[in-house]
Structures are given as structure tokens and as C-alpha cells.
Design brief:
Layout lengths: L1 E6 L2 H7 L7 E5 L3 H13 L3 E2 L8 E6 L3
Parallel strand pairs: 1-3
Antiparallel strand pairs: 1-4, 2-4
């Protein structure tokens, strides 16, 4: 499963997720509006929402292998 989310602290969220090997900060944002638009595009591409992140300054992705 692929996840996408927004956060203000990319190091903290990566650690909270267990340091996934494919964790990537995909984009840095200067406005909440542009961050939310990115998030919607990621969901349209098949990503699921990661609810652990808080804030909107960085958009990140990672996957969970089963």
C-alpha cells in the first residue's frame, strides 16, 4: 500500500513511521492551499491518506509491504 501525507516535521514523522526505507519528502510548500492540492493529486494517483502527519509544510510518501 502506498501512502501520502503532510507534515511540518519530516524527521519526526519518519521516525514515528518506523523509518521506512522508501520514505521521501516529495515537495516543500509555501502555502497550505498548494499543499492540499498536492495531497488531492496524490490520492487521485492511488495513494492512501497517512493520518499521522500534522501541518502542511512538507508532502511525503512511503509504502507498506505486506
Amino acid at each position: 500500500m502506498k501512502f501520502a501525507g503532510l507534515t511540518d516535521d519530516q524527521k519526526k514523522i519518519k521516525a514515528e513511521l518506523g523509518n521506512p526505507a522508501d520514505f521521501k519528502v516529495m515537495q516543500q510548500f509555501t502555502s497550505e492551499y498548494s499543499a492540499k492540492q498536492w495531497e488531492k493529486r496524490m490520492y487521485a494517483h492511488g495513494y492512501e491518506k497517512d493520518k499521522k502527519g500534522t501541518g502542511w509544510k512538507y508532502g511525503y510518501t512511503f509504502s507498506v509491504r505486506r
